[in-house]
Amino acid sequence: EKYCYNNVPANCTSNGGLYEWDELMKYDNTPASQGICPPGWHVPTATEWMTLFNYYNGNAFAGSPLKDTLTIGFHALPGGVLYQNNTWSFNNVATIFWSSTPAGSGRVISYGLNIYDGSSSYYESLKANSLPVRCLKD
C-alpha cells in the first residue's frame, strides 16, 4: 500500500509516497532486498545508510548536506510520516526513511532528518508505520 500525506495525491507527487515496511519489502525480510524498488535497485540496509552518513562526517552532520538541493544524487524532502495508519506527522518538518534491516520483532531500523538541525537520527520504527524509502542502486 502506498499513502500520500493526508491522503492528498499531490503530496505523493511533491514528496513521494509512504509505505508500510512489509509492503515496501514485498514481505521479504532479507536485508538489501529489492522490495518495491526498480530492477537493479534495492532497499538500503542500515549499514549502507551509515556509509552514506559517514561520507558526510557522521550522523551529527549528515543531515544538512542530505537536505541540500545542491547535493548530487540525494535530496531529502520533509514529507512527513504516517504512524500506524492513524496519525499524520511532520509534514514540512521532517521525514524518516526505512532501511531493510529488522530491529527485532515488529521493528525496523530507520533514519530521520528534520529542518531544525544538521544531524540524522536513528529510530527503531514499527513496521506498521508508513515512511518513505530511498532505493539504492545495486
Radius of gyration: 14 Å
Strand order of the largest sheet: 1-2-9
Q: Provide the helix percentage.
A: 10-25%
Main pleated-sheet profile? 3 strands, antiparallel
Give me the count of strands. Answer: 10
Strand content: 25-35%
Average pLDDT over all residues: 94
Protein architecture, described:
By secondary structure, the chain is α+β, with helices and mostly antiparallel strands. The chain has 4 helices and 10 strands; from the N terminus they run E-H-E-H-E-H-H-E-E-E-E-E-E-E. It has helices at residues 9-15, 21-24, 46-55, 59-67, and strands at residues 2-3, 18-20, 41-42, 79-83, 87-91, 94-102, 107-114, 121-126, 130-131, 136-137. Helix 3 crosses helix 4. The longest helix has 10 residues, at 46-55. The two termini are 24 Å apart.
Keywords, separated by commas or semicolons:
about 140 residues; three-stranded antiparallel beta sheet; about 20% helix; globular
Question: How do the helices and strands line up, and which of them pair or pack?
Answer:
Elements: E1 2-3, H1 9-15, E2 18-20, H2 21-24, E3 41-42, H3 46-55, H4 59-67, E4 79-83, E5 87-91, E6 94-102, E7 107-114, E8 121-126, E9 130-131, E10 136-137
Antiparallel strand pairs: 1-2, 2-9, 3-10, 4-5, 6-7, 7-8
